[in-house]
Amino acid sequence: MCTVKTASLFVQAFDGQSIDVRCARVPKYARYQCGFTLVELIMVIVVMGVIGGAVAVFMKGPIDAYFDTTRRAGISDMADTAVRRMARDIRKALPNSIRVSSDGQCIEFIPTRTGGRYRLAGPGNFIAPNTPITNFNMLADHNASNSAIPVDQRIQIGDLIAIYNMAGQTELDVRLSAVTAEVVAPAPVRTGTAPNYETVISIASTTFPYVQVNAENPRFQVIPGDEKIVSYICSGGSLYRNTNYAYATSCPVPALTVPVIANAATCNFVQTLGVNGNALVQLALTFSSASEAASIYHEVHVSVSP
Question: Which of 59, 76, 139, 225 is the most exposed place for a label (fewest CB within 10 A)?
């Protein structure tokens, strides 16, 4: 007869020897469970495999949809950001300075910092054609100390003043410096009395071949001295923003240091000139990622009236 020791897995056999009741043949009242069989293990593995396969089938769709949505959102965000930046720059382009390459892969223009109406010192005095001038008055308070003017819109030394950049006039093309004068004073100086303030802008002695004589609102634009020309060009599958390069008859191939606006992009730029002093620039771009692509079309209305 066996006796089971308290808190022990061993029993005392009739011959005085101790045996492990977990695996030994002992009376039923002293027998313990001795693990599981190989058949039971295989059945559990099969059942778990079936359950895992069923879960994978139901989870694959939502997971794939999540990654697809993330990828498409990235493409859309890249496209929207690129087009918005291009549209913002093009709207500030100097009148009659936008040029699109024959293959539609490049759009080039001259940016502007600000602009306004002008006259020589004294009421009723206007800039005369082919007459050298060294300063003129801007009809506004554009003093550098005026905190209401954003920093990026303040006229600075080295900026270029463009007056009446006409279309179709090679000798008046701003790229050839025929209608521009460099700002030479460190900062514009305010003159006059409130509320009719004017700002004196000093420039290098310049002869403008054509100006708006006796015009009601003669206007000028300011070209930033640190960014005198800008182009967006698709090359090698990427969209680049190229700046401050030597003017040529065609858009130059972007260097390795030129910032990339978007990768895996193709472009088609079109400019249509209207008869009412406006132009329509059409931006058609396609952005790709993996096996998907997103196309975006945007129109920018710009003024070509100097």
Answer: 59
Cis preceding linkage at 195, omega within 30:
yes
> Rounded to an integer, what distance in angstroms lies between the CA atom of residue 152 and that of residue 82?
21
* 3 state DSSP class of 85: helix
Residue 211 amino acid letter: V
Give dist(CA 295, CA 285) in Å, integer. Answer: 6
By percentage, how much of the chain surpasses pLDDT 90?
Answer: 11
Cα–Cα distance, 149 to 142 (Å, whole number): 7
Handedness of CA 221, 224, 229, 234 (dihedral sign): negative
Which of 207, 257, 250 lies closest to 231, judged by CA? 250
By the 8 A CB rule, do 209 and 151 touch? Answer: no
Strand ranges in 211-259 using DSSP code E only, listed in sequence order: 219-223, 230-235, 238-243
Helices (H) and strands (E) in the chain, counts: 1, 18
pLDDT on residue 270: 92
pLDDT, tens only, 85-112: 999 999 989 888 888 988 999 999 989 9
- SS3 letters for 111-161? ECCEEEEEECCCCCCCCCCCCCEEEEEECCCCCCCCCCCCHHHCCCCCCEE
* Distance set, CA 7 to CA 10, 109, 271 (Å): 9, 92, 93
For residue 23, give the DSSP letter.
T
What's the pLDDT tens digit per position in 236-277?
Answer: 888 999 988 877 777 888 887 888 888 878 889 999 887 767
Token pair listed for 291: 């096996």
Handedness of CA 226, 228, 231, 236 (dihedral sign): negative
H or E segment to which residue 75 belongs: helix 38-91
